[in-house]
Amino acid sequence: MMIQLENVTREYGDGKLVHALDGVSLTIDRGERVAVMGPSGSGKSTLLNLICGLDEPTSGVIRIDGADIAGLDDDARTRLRREKIGMIFQTFNLLPTLSATENVALPLRLQGLSRRDAETRANSMLGKVGLAGRSSHRPDELSGGERQRVAIARALIFDPPILLADEPTGNLDSHTGEEILTLLDNLHREYNTTVLMVTHNEEAAAYCDRVLRLRDGRVVKEEVVKATRLGG
What we know:
By secondary structure, the chain is α/β, with parallel strands linked by helices. 37% of the residues lie in helices and 26% in strands. Helix 3 (100-110) runs parallel beside helix 5 (144-156) and helix 4 (115-128) crosses helix 5.
């Protein structure tokens, strides 16, 4: 399994404790696509932050590709994110002074690849997300949908086994959001990446194999949606 949580809790506050996550256990297999849904404050973002090692659980165990991330120091967690976890954000998080090519190439440059080789691979990936003609443009010269495509290309440029997506269609209109979901679907077929997507969008969740519904830091419902989607 790619992602495994065992009785994970995350508490905040010194006085009155807030249970952001309360005894969550789940497993996500290699290549599986899972949507996490729930109202604001249900623990969705906390879950993503814990899985990518940006936050630490108060108790419980989190394993990523078999490794217990609680036993990793900061450098090892950073390396884990660089090598195994691609991340897509609602706000895109592109560097405004860099071109699309340079933004996509950045993870490879951080891994030590030469600029020439990194940008060659970045341009190839931009072609796969439909932006071959926009590679030299900076983020402020791109539409919201184009910026999200750049962010997706950056997240997948190093072939990560895990892709975490935080509201990937949240800032897009419905038509552009549908295009992004179709793109992610096609890329998943090509790369077989394990996908964990936080979303408020039922249509986005329908692109996944399972939906986990959170409330008050707990998984209160789990739905298998793959059969419905394939049949529809």
